Amino acid sequence: MVQLKKEDTEKMAISELKRYKLRMQILLNLYKKHPQSASALSKKNHVSLPTVRSILDELINEGVVQVAGIGDSQGGRRPILYCHADNAYCIMAVEIGHYKAKAVILNSLNKELTSIIEYTTDIDDPNLENKTNEVFQTLLQEAGISKDKVIATGISMPGLIDSKKGVNRTIKNANQQNVQKRLVSVLQMPVIIENDARMQALGEFVFGKAKKTKNTLVINWSWGLGLGMILNGQIYHGSSGTAGEFSHIRMIPNGKLCECGKQGCLQTIASARPLIDMAQQQIKEGAISQLTSRFAKKPEEVTVKDIINCAKKGDELSISLLNEISKKFGWGLSILIQLYNPELIVLNGPLAEAQQYVLVPIQQSINQYCLENIQNNVKIEISEIGEQFGLKGVAVMVFHRIFRDKSIDISL
Predict the structure, then answer these.
(1) 191, 272, 280, 352: which has the fewest Cβ within 10 Å?
(2) What whole-number distance in Å separates Cα of residue 64 and Cα of residue 56?
(3) Residue 111 contacts residue 143 (beta carbons within 8 Å)
């Protein structure tokens, strides 16, 4: 292990501290982009080539860096390339949703060492820490590694997150809001928590369609409307870490009661819940539809996936329901577009899987509500990363904190 505790670094001589920080910076460079040559690392860190080679030799001897091969010649000798050693650094990434969570162990080469395990929990679950620990033990067994190989856990979850204090202020029971403290007590390792929408945006920024963009909005369209914002090439947190509460923009005066306690929020008209409610009502009224044929005796069992599948088979009711919910969602998007002037909006989540059945009515709403000169500059696309985008974002966040312990900056 090359990380030191804060109290250890405070005891170092200045020369030792500089070398330690350079070691960590090289590890961060190799995490951001691998493999790399000693020459490239020397230029990035503005230090001599012999110094970088000396540190790389130390890290190889410690088993945390390895030779990855030989690079192409730039006019002289072909350079030796370096990367993190397999499984030298491993973390557990956990993404908690409204009704279930998923977890995986990854290494610092961004490789999954296990399958993604799902388990039933939510942010208000008083047994969250114990359930997560049980999953951790299962993942360790599957990965075939010892517990000490996993150096930290990252948790993403919906809610008003103070990542510095490890607190989720949306949790109803105030005594359970310090999620970091609860999880550290059972996992016995560093735990970092963050907002799920920001981690999904980070995953898209590093691995997905938002890569190489400067101003992109990433929205998880599900039971809520999780918004992660990339502004000027950085993940945006806001002054207190709570930026992006897209779900709770008030759209309908005296509208339906939202889970936040207010009325008429966008979430009450443009998320999975109102879509399901409308479908169930139509089924109960005996509407002519594939949904009615399948769920007449059990309307409570209809899911978003069922509605999308029926729409793809030409079911008029399902297409109409998706059209209605998408136009309202597009109304909300038009507000974001005029506020932030993004170059790209990436949609993910179960409702985004409807593809053209939602993209077309969304665009119609944007055409209706947005100024033409602003809306013409934005593209709306569906994520291609799938269920892993949030977990990968968590991994990026944790490894950056491990190697630098600063605000995330993923520019290479």
Answers:
(1) 280
(2) 9
(3) no
Query: In this predicted structure, what is the pLDDT of residue 386?
Result: 66
CA-based nearest residue to 151, from 190, 181, 116? 190
- Phi first, then psi, for residue 99 (nearest 5°) are -130, -15
User: For the stretch 29-38, what's the b/e string if a residue is b when 16 or more beta carbons lie within 10 angstroms of its beta carbon?
Assistant: bbbbebbbbb
pLDDT tens across 131-172, in order?
999 999 999 999 999 999 999 999 999 988 988 899 999 999
**Is it the case that residue 408 has pLDDT exceeding 90?**
no
Cα gap 391→96, rounded to integer Å? 10
Question: Which residue in 356, 388, 306, 410 sits closest to 110, CA to CA?
Answer: 388
């900056």: which residue's tokens?
A: 409
Contact indicator for 361, 327 with CB cutoff of 8 Å: yes
Helix ranges (DSSP H) in 112-241: 128-143, 179-187, 196-207
Q: What is the tens place of the pLDDT at every residue in 37-92?
A: 999 999 999 999 999 999 999 999 999 999 999 988 777 788 999 999 988 899 99
The structure tokens listed for 11 are: 């005891």
Question: 């650094």: which residue's tokens?
Answer: 89
CA angle 264, 267, 268 (to 5 degrees): 50
Kindly state the tokens that stand for 375. Answer: 């809306």
Q: Taking each helix axis from N to C terminus, what angle separates 304-312 and 316-340, rounded to the nearest 10 degrees?
A: 110
Helix 356-369 and helix 304-312, axial crossing angle in degrees, nearest 10: 100
CA-closest candidate to residue 340, choices 164, 224, 201, 221: 201
Judged by phi (left if over 0) then psi (alpha if -120 to 50, else beta), residue 110 lies in left
Distance CA 412, CA 410 (A): 6
